[in-house]
Amino acid sequence: EIYTLSLHDALPIFTRSLKDYSVYFLTLTLGVSLFYVFNSLEGQWAMQMLAKSAHYMVESILIFMNIFSAFVSVVLACLVLYANTFLMKRRKRELGTYFLLGLPTGRVSLLLVLETLLIGLLALAAGLGLGILLSHVLGLFTIAMFSAYPAELGLILSVPAIGKTAVYFGVIFLVVMACTGFSVS
């Protein structure tokens, strides 16, 4: 017998696990937003002013930020893997029921990978939006700290930070999806 996977099949599973997924989603969103905020610091007004003045600390700060960014990405990866493992443990009975009902392992694995992908993409979008807002608040705080206000006080969108966040989070989520598929198989 051939089994098909449709949105109709995935929706009841998703709604039953909404409470667990909301905690997972919130964790991912906050992780992405903090990662973006950290990586967008070099685009902040204060850093740009220091760079223009050829301040000796700018190069050291940027090197430190790149090293620390790698560390933060490892911490984020561990957090995402832990949250995913927690979610899978909470759903063991549900997964067992699918296996008892005869759903092939490959289909269950595909379903979980698709759910993980959907949650990951939504968390990335929400996290970047929240990160942009938090980055702006941090920029305003920094400006107030230096008591110097630039002529233009708009929202700073750091394209390199968005790219770095998307790439790092994408790699982390590919690992998580592979772990999810492997654990079910």
Mass-distribution shape: elongated
Strand-residue proportion: under 5%
Query: What value does the average pLDDT take?
Result: 79
The profile of the biggest β sheet is:
none
What is the helix content?
over 70%
Number of strands: 0
Question: How far apart lie the N and C ends?
Answer: 20 Å
Rg result: 21 Å
How do the SSEs run, as a string of H and E?
Answer: HHHHHHH
Structural class: mainly alpha
Low-confidence stretches: none
* Total number of helices: 7
What do you see in this structure?
This protein has helices spanning 7-16, 18-39, 45-52, 57-90, 92-100, 105-146, 159-184. The chain is mostly helical and 185 residues long. Helices cover 82% and strands 0% of the residues. The mean pLDDT is 79.
